[in-house]
């Protein structure tokens, strides 16, 4: 059974709760080639090229693949790394973590808990100056910013 389509007067963005069951062929149809590369193949956009790395708009950041709310502007900070950075996800269960040893590095990958799409990585260190000593370095192309209503 598929999820109902959102109505035009819906203020809360649509979340596709069936996204986890989509086949890769479905994702290829739903996403642009660049979105597919990052979200489904764990690619990375180039630093300082994404639409949200230097954005200061207040709002929520949702998974571009399924619409699940992941981060908010309250936890976003300027890390000057070239990608949007957050010191925590919206909720502990909004994201999942995987050990990533690609390219000879030892990192922690961050994925959307709803649809398992790749978002970026999380790094720990006291030098970040955040309440959690963490930097969630997230690809802009993995996110959709929904501005707060004034």
Short description:
By secondary structure, the chain is mainly beta. 11% of the residues lie in helices and 28% in strands. The strands form 2 sheets. The protein has a 6-stranded antiparallel sheet.
Keywords for this structure?
about 150 residues; mainly beta; Metal Binding Protein, Guanine Nucleotide Exchange Factor, Chain A; three-stranded antiparallel β-sheet; about 10% helix; globular; disordered N terminus; oxidoreductase; EC 1.8.4.12
Structure notes:
The protein has helices spanning 24-30, 33-41; strands at 59-63, 69-72, 76-77, 85-86, 95-100, 107-112, 118-124, 134-138, 143-147. By secondary structure, it is mainly beta. The protein has a single domain, classed as Beta Complex (Metal Binding Protein, Guanine Nucleotide Exchange Factor, Chain A). It is globular. Keywords: Oxidoreductase. InterPro entries: Met_Sox_Rdtase_MsrB (IPR028427), Met_Sox_Rdtase_MsrB_dom (IPR002579), Mss4-like_sf (IPR011057).
């Amino acid at each position: 059974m598929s999820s109902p389509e959102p109505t035009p007067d819906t203020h809360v963005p649509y979340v596709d709760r069936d996204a986890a069951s989509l086949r890769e062929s479905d994702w290829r149809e739903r996403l642009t080639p660049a979105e597919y590369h990052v979200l489904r193949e764990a690619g990375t956009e180039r630093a300082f090229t994404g639409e949200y790395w230097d954005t200061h708009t207040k709002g929520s950041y949702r998974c571009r693949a399924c619409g699940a709310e992941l981060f908010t502007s309250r936890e976003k900070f300027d890390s000057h790394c070239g990608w949007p950075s957050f010191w925590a996800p919206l909720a502990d269960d909004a994201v999942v973590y995987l050990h990533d040893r690609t390219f000879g590095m030892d990192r922690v990958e961050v994925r959307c808990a709803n649809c398992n799409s790749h978002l970026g990585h999380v790094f720990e260190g006291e030098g970040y100056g955040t309440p959690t000593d963490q930097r969630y370095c997230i690809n802009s192309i993995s996110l959709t910013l929904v501005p707060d209503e004034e």
